[in-house]
Amino acid sequence: MDYIIKEEKLELKYEHGKGAWTYHLRIPNSKHIVGKWGDIKVSGLIDNYTIEGRNLAPIKGEDKMLSINSEIRKAINKKGGDFVTVSLYLLSKKEEITKKSILETFKESQVLESFEKLNEFEKDEILESIISQKNEEKQIKIIIQLIDKLSR
Q1: CA distances (Å), 12 to each of 65, 78, 128, 140, 149, in order?
Q2: What are phi and psi of 133, to 5 degrees?
Q3: How far apart, in whole angstroms, are the C-alpha atoms of residue 70 and residue 150?
Q4: Angle (nearest 5°) at CA 52 between 50 and 56
Q5: What are phi and psi of 43, to 5 degrees?
Q6: Other CB atoms closer than 10 Å to residue 1's CB: what's the count?
Q7: Contacts of 51 by beta carbon, 8 Å cutoff, 6+ apart
Q8: Lower Cβ count inside 10 Å, N or C end of the chain?
């Protein structure tokens, strides 16, 4: 996984009257990330609190913002002006959809149970071997080979 920020100290900003964005983090060196609202999702840690699939707000020509709601603030016991340690990685739509569809295909092919018996490293390696392929044709070929192997 490619981190866009790893174990960096960031200030939890407070700007009164900004609605969901009253408390937020500015993610440094993120202005190059392209996408509209809803396209740029991140997962990671804020002070060891796990966040998953959160939207980054695109701001034209500026670093992206991440809203920090009251649930997160309570969990990390922080308020505006405090510093937090942040590690975030970008989720790609292709990866999210592909992993889900691979597992659905395994389920439909009645090999999901065999797949689930593998250790985490083997499962991750299998999913990555499919996702990393450049085109769908190669992905399908590998999935078919794996279904055959897992069905034995």
Answers
A1: 11, 8, 34, 44, 50
A2: -65, 145
A3: 45
A4: 115
A5: -135, 165
A6: 8
A7: 42, 43, 44, 45, 72, 88
A8: C
* Architecture of the domain delimited by 3-91: Beta Barrel (2.40)
Cα three-residue angle 120-104-132, rounded to 5 degrees:
60
- DSSP string for 74-134: HHHT--TT-EEEEEEEEEPHHHHHHHHHHHHHHHHTT-HHHHHTS-HHHHHHHHHHHHT-S
Residue type, 137: E
4: CB partners within 8 A, 6+ apart: 27, 29, 30, 33, 42, 88, 89, 90
Sign for the CA dihedral angle at 72, 40, 57, 36 comes to negative
What the block records as the tokens of 10 is 């960031």
* pLDDT score of 120: 94
Tokens of 119: 């250790």
Of 100, 146, 151, nearest to 125 (Cα)?
Answer: 146
As annotated, the residues of the chain forming the CATH 2.40.30.100 domain(s) are 3-91
pLDDT of residue 31: 86
